[in-house]
Amino acid sequence: MSKMLQSFNTIIEELKSDLGDGFVASDIWQSKDAHSLAGYNSQPKAVALFNEVTRTLNKTLAGADYPSLGDYYMVHLDNGLVVVIITSGDYQQGMLVDLSKTTMGILMSVVLPKVLKNLQEATS
Amino acid sequence: MRITVEQIRKVINGLKDDLGEGFVDTDIWDTSSNKSVAFHHNQGVVPQYGFVPKHIKLFREISKVLNNALKESHYPPLGDFYLIQLNNNQLIVVLNIKPGQSNHKLSGNKHTLGYSGTVVHQQFILVDLSKTTIGALLSIAIPNVFKNYK
């Protein structure tokens, strides 16, 4: 297994311990082909579709004269779960998190900065 | 659901109080007509009746793409909000304002803040994260916005 894939698997394992029961699913993929390279409760269709959402966001923000997409976007779902998509160069990571089993504080202040750092290091 | 001028004032004053200089801009629009109900920049509240600004078209498009992706992925539809971090350390928040009663309390182990039902208004908020915190936004400002619409 390549060093990069090992790092991706470590990121997923750390998410399990940091989010506990709040961790529902995650995938890491390369934007050019949108195939999951590492995952937990992997969601191949969601990977392909959110890869398109990221592409559309980049295109529409540029078209509306906004700054480009930063490191992440987050979507709150009707059942209280949240989808977080993190971008790092040509790679993306999606996470599905249950906020009834963890807190927004843990997600935004502990997990997100850690995943961002580890994903950037793994893909640099 | 009809948003009143009093609710708009409370929402905008609440954002100023909760986010301070981190509050950059907001716009509230009707999702059926895409017409702006109220727009705020740091000069004050300026109603823009009948006007469809470029950013409303942008967020209408993004909301549509997100809803399609969620539906195709067999996920639930959009909940109370989505947010997009920009590479200048600003954050776009789009709130979905729905009629009906809240399913969940605003305190305790909450995970849904707003109303249930169809989205009738959306609100865009631009936040400068160099002048406020993500915690103030997610734990104080956004719950207060939903509270002020009730």
Explain what this protein looks like in three dimensions.
The complex is a heterodimer of chains A (124) and B (150). Chain A is an alpha+beta fold and 124 residues long. Chain A has one domain: Beta-Lactamase (2-Layer Sandwich). Chain A has helices at 3-19, 44-63, 104-123; strands at 23-30, 36-40, 69-77, 81-88, 91-98. In chain A, helix 1 (3-19) packs antiparallel against helix 3. The mean pLDDT of chain A is 95. With 150 residues, chain B is of the alpha+beta class. Chain B has one domain (5-149): Beta-Lactamase. Helix content of chain B is 33%, strand content 27%. Chain B is built from three helices and six strands. In chain B, helix 1 (5-19) runs antiparallel to helix 3 (134-149). Mean pLDDT of chain B is 82; it is low at 101-110. The A-B interface holds A 43, 45-46, 49-50, 52-53, 56-57, 60-61, 63-81, 83, 98-100, 104-105, 108-109 and B 54-55, 57-58, 61-62, 65-66, 68-70, 72-90, 92, 104, 109, 111-112, 134-135, 138-139.
Task: Describe the structure in brief.
The complex is a heterodimer of chains A (124) and B (150). Chain A has 124 residues and is an alpha+beta fold. Chain A is built from three helices and five strands.
**The CATH topology of chain A, please?**
Beta-Lactamase
- CATH 2nd-level architecture of chain A: 2-Layer Sandwich
H/I helix tally of chain A: 3
What's the helical proportion of residues of chain B?
25-40%
User: Which topology of chain B does CATH recognise?
Assistant: Beta-Lactamase
Q: Order of SSEs of chain B, N→C? A: HEEEHEEEH
**DSSP strand (E) fraction of chain A?**
25-35%
Please count the beta strands of chain B (DSSP E, at least 2 residues each).
6
Structural class of chain B: alpha+beta
Counting helices, strands and paired strands, the structural category of chain A is alpha+beta
Instruction: Work out the radius of gyration of chain B.
Output: 15 Å
What is the 3D shape of chain A? globular
CATH-level-2 architecture of chain B = 2-Layer Sandwich
Q: Which H/E pattern describes the elements of chain A?
A: HEEHEEEH
Low-confidence stretches of chain A: none
Mean pLDDT of chain A: 95
Provide the helix percentage of chain A: 40-55%
| CATH homologous superfamily descriptor of chain A | Dynein light chain 2a, cytoplasmic
